[in-house]
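User: New here, any thoughts?
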Amino acid sequence: MAQLPEWFSRLDFSAMEDAPNKLAECEFFFSLASQETDRAKFRWLVSAFFNAAYSYFEMSALRAHFAFTTETGDPLEDRVALNVLKEYVGVERSSKKSGYVKTLGRHPITKKLYDLRRRNTHHFPLSIMVTGTDLPEDFHFGHMQGEGASGLSFCRDVLSLIHQVQSKISL
């Protein structure tokens, strides 16, 4: 542990992003998707939005677990932030990997977000249907006519939820 102070002295904290910056990233991709009428580009932007939203929860959980340190350098949790996050996502800290925290969807919106992101990232690209002429509002998730869900409407719900979480954490 003698090298820990030297390691900390090398850290560039300004290069490390925080939760409000991830929220701004979500807003950035949502703003672009809200104007995109090309289906492929819309899918790319929504994919980036999903990853930013997922990352917001992952990063927030990690920071909450290691928010403070004791005089001995041991991490202390930010209980307030963790309790807020746990309303929306399950938060698991690995007993095998120090510094590893994993989240999973708990709230109906985060469950759907995590499922869509997982399938889009690990299985098949997100299916986007054109259900009308008012694009991008009429881009719907899915591949079965009559069973799709509005893509932008869901992204709005996710963004609203993240704003809600951030406002509770920032109190």
Notes: The chain has a mean pLDDT of 87. Residues 85 and 126 are 27 Å apart (CA to CA). The chain has one domain: 20-169. The first helix runs from residue 4 to 10.
